[in-house]
Every structure is written in structure tokens, then in C-alpha cells.
# Entry
Amino acid sequence: MTNANHYDRRTALRQLAGFLAASPFARAQLDSPYAATHVPPIEDLVNVFEFEPLCKAHIPKQNYDFIAGGVDNEWSLRHNREAFDKIRFRPRMLVDTSGLDVSTTLFGERIEMPILIAPTAGHGLANPEGELATARAAAQVKTIHILSTNSTHPLEKVAAASSFPKWFQLYPGPDVEGTRERVEKAVGAGFKLICVTVDAGWNSHRERLLRNRVRAQVPPGAAQPVTGARTRRQREYADAPPKPPPYRLATTLMHKLDWRFFDDLKKYAKTPVLIKGIMTAEDAELAVKHGADGIVVSNHGGRYLDYASATIEALPEVVKAVNGKMPVLVDSGFRRGTDILKALALGAKAVCVGRPPLWGLGAYGEAGVVRVLELLQSELALAMGLCGKPKLANVDRSILRM
Ligand SMILES: Cc1cc2nc3c(=O)[nH]c(=O)nc-3n(C[C@H](O)[C@H](O)[C@H](O)COP(=O)(O)O)c2cc1C
# Structure
């Protein structure tokens, strides 16, 4: 056909397809809970980043935004990743690395990798099985899942989901008595360690969430957050109409607490207590003084204070202040085995990952969480092997060029 204005069936279909792809209607279908989108076989994915777009395509937009988002300008969210680029390796050659081993022991628990699942709220936002699937996945790969206070499923159910040891993350609240009850309930259910988060005293300003017309919501079939007495924020999250309220400065019990709270917690917890959210030598020294059993260097994955430094930058001063008196863990932005090796070389005993297991869960359920952890484990082993450090005990700063 030579007529440029000719309008044939194929053109019409192409235009219709274009219209549908761009239409809010089609988008709404894609954003509907668990829309059936093309998901490649899990073994086709070669690194953990590749799970993120699949998770995004698979869950409602507002749920994805809850997982992905950081605070304000999201500078710390980005910088957590960028800071790894400034550190390079000094690999050693002609070392026998045939006995490569990434297993370790943490608070008496033998784990197959120095990589733990960070506590993250609402796994039901990614998959109705939520924390139950995550706990089973952690048990499969033999590592620790730290269950969030804001779990979608009741802590007792998560405790029973696998027989592998688990830890419980504590947000204090709604009051001092309720906090104690929550800890006793978790310890009673079998959680072996309490990880208290101290960097979230004020509600965060996450603009991705504020811009959405609907709130992140767990799908039918998943439970609501139910661990202990719920804070006002949790009640709002669970019961309110799905429109997010306008931002207002709001607090949690944490903003009123000081180290006396920690001293009390240490007395009644009857488990080791890990303190999560420490970013400075000064606070690390106080943690030592107040008898913490371990520290997690964390900026909450860039979700609370924007322009907080990257955790890989804060780690050395914390390690130095602790001076070997307790294990130092770190999280925020870890996506590669090489990232993990850099932290171990700077003195971390282990690393926690927050979003990557959620991407795995959103894209493939339990199997996705397993695969994300396996990929990180093998990337770490590879980096150790190529640096000439077959054992974690031999990993030190000498392999880094800062
Ligand atoms: C969706 C989401 C929910 C989170 N919920 C909690 C929580 O309930 N308690 C907590 O201590 N930290 C929470 N965090 C912070 C994580 O424990 C961890 O510090 C952070 O995710 C690490 O960064 P990464 O996601 O870049 O790995 C959450 C993080 C995300 C992404």
C-alpha cells in the first residue's frame, strides 16, 4: 500500500494495544493484588537486583512503595549503595582456598552464612504467607530471621513455622508495661534474642507513601499486624480507610526513652539483647557500658534520618569503639557478596538484608527468599575465594584499599 493515510487492521490493532498499555484501566489491572505477570523461572535470575522489578510487577504499587521507599530526598537510601563503590579489594594470590567456608556462629547459633534477614514490617504486603514463608526460607538455608514487631502474622505462628532459631525485633510501645509484655510473649514463644530498634522515635516522612492515593495493605488471606498491644500507628495502619492521612509530626514511645529503658530491658529480657540503629562511636561506647550483647549498625535502610551516613562509612568507628567486646552487625544497602565481604573486612561479624528477601518473597514466595540468600551466600564465597581468604576468621582490613 502506498497511501500513507491508509488505516489497515494491523495499524488499528497496534494503536489499540498502545492505548490499552497506557490506559489507567490497564495499569489498575497490573497494580491489582498479585496480577499474573510473566515471571521467569527462578534459576534464570543471576543476582538479587533482578528480583526487585519482578516483585514490583507482582504486588500492588502502594505495597511496593512501602518496601522500596526511603525518607525525604532518599539520599541515605542511595548513598548506602554508592559508598560501597569507594572501597576496593587488595586480593592475595597463590593461597589454597579449596576449604572455602562462610558458616559462622552467632550468639551460640551455628548459621551457614554471615547473612541474616533484617526485621522488616508486613511481609504480607509481598505475599499472603508473609513471615511464615520467610521463616521457613531462613530455616532452609540455615540462617536467622529477625521477626519485626510489626509482623503480619502472630509471632507465635511465626515461631512455630520452623524449628530453626529465630530472633525478635522490638519496637517499644504502646507503653512501658506493654513493651515488657511483648518481650515476654516473644521469649515465651521461643525467640532466642531480642533486637531492640532505637532509631525510630519519630514517624518517618516517606514521600512515596504520602503521594499514593491508597495505603499499603495486606491482601486477603494474610493476617494483620498483631504482635502484642498495637500502637496507635499500628491501629491506624490496620483499621483506617485506605487513604493515607496527611503527614503530621508524630511519635512513638521510643522518643521519650533513654538508656534507663535499655537497662530495664536487659534485666527482664532473659535473652541476649542486640541494639539496632547505632551509628556513632559515642553510642557504641554507651552500648558497651550498658551491657548490650551486640550492635547492629543501621540507618534503617535510609528510612528514618535522611543524610545519615552510609552504614559502611559508620561501621569502622563503631567497631573501633566496641573493641571486640561484642559482635557488631551491619545492615542497609547490602546487595552483593562483595558488599558483605567489605563489611566483614571492616570488622562486622555478620550483615543483615532487608529489602532483598522481600523482593524474593514478592516475586516467588518462599522459594524467592531462599534464592536471594543463596545468591548472596555464593557471591560472598566467590569474593572470599578470589581475595585469598577461604575462612571468615582470616578476613581482615588487609584485603581492602580504602
Ligand atoms: C519494608 C521495610 C520495613 C521495615 N520494618 C522494620 C521494622 O519493623 N523494624 C526494624 O527494626 N527495622 C525495619 N526496617 C529496617 C530493616 O530492619 C533494615 O534496617 C533495612 O531494611 C536494611 O536496609 P536494606 O533494606 O537496604 O537491606 C524495615 C525496612 C524495610 C525496607
Observations:
- Residues 66-67, 80, 118-121, 148-150, 169, 197, 276, 298, 300-301, 303, 331-334, 353-355 surround flavin mononucleotide (CB under 6 Å).
- Residues 143 and 304 are 27 Å apart (CA to CA).
